[in-house]
Write a structure and sequence with these properties.
The complex is a heterodimer. Chain A is mainly beta. Helix content of chain A is 0%, strand content 45%. A five-stranded mixed beta sheet of chain A has the order 1-9-8-3-4, with no helix packed on it. In chain A, strands 2-7-6-5 form a four-stranded antiparallel beta sheet, with no helix packed on it. Chain A is globular and about 40 Å long. The N and C termini of chain A lie far apart (36 Å). The mean pLDDT of chain A is 92. By secondary structure, chain B is mostly beta strands. Chain B has no helices and eleven strands. In chain B, strands 2, 4, 5, 6, 9, 10 and 11 form a seven-stranded mixed beta sheet that branches. The chains are: A mainly beta, B mainly beta. Chain A binds chain B through residues 2, 32, 34, 36, 41-46, 49, 85, 87, 91-96, 98-104, and chain B through 4, 30-31, 33, 35, 41-45, 48, 50, 56, 58-59, 88, 90, 92, 94-99, 102-110, 112.
Chain lengths: 111, 116
Amino acid sequence: DAKTTQPNSMESNEEEPVHLPCNHSTISGTDYIHWYRQLPSQGPEYVIHGLTSNVNNRMASLAIAEDRKSSTLILHRATLRDAAVYYCILKWRTSYDKVIFGPGTSLSVIP
Amino acid sequence: DGGITQSPKYLFRKEGQNVTLSCEQNLNHDAMYWYRQDPGQGLRLIYYSQIVNDFQKGDIAEGYSVSREKKESFPLTVTSAQKNPTAFYLCASSIGPGQEGTGELFFGEGSRLTVL
């Protein structure tokens, strides 16, 4: 079973910020929180990951709760190209264990 | 450029035939994974390998087989024992124990298998 839970779908207006939540209440101390996104008929693409501190990169920001039991992916200004399925997963840095994906959140962006 | 190459992109198979999907990576990653995706669903883990000549079953390994004879290659065979093989298959890789890097998964573009 997936170790994370996410809403099935979300909507956002174009050029507005989007906050995608993820719950991972059974996270262990060695689990990194990863986010990937998938466009139709393509392989998932890495977005961002973090361990304890909030992270920023050119694609998004990742806000991690102090107890690490939840996190939020933040897209600062949604564009039509951000419409995709977003997956939140837990993963050890060097893959000692199998990596499980849940169904993810399907994000729709409204022009 | 470094990356993962899956082939073929599209494959048609008659019932009762085995088919092998190729996955090659030039990222020097020790770990490789195979996932299956059905329409509107998430990714389900079939097999994974942490190192050459070793692999483990994922959640839906029945009807599938793999080999890991070379670091760069992790082919997946869909056997006739797989009752519903029509799906989108994704291969991924990441660093393994002892390797440097940040640990993210790199995915191929996928192979779409249709059983006629």
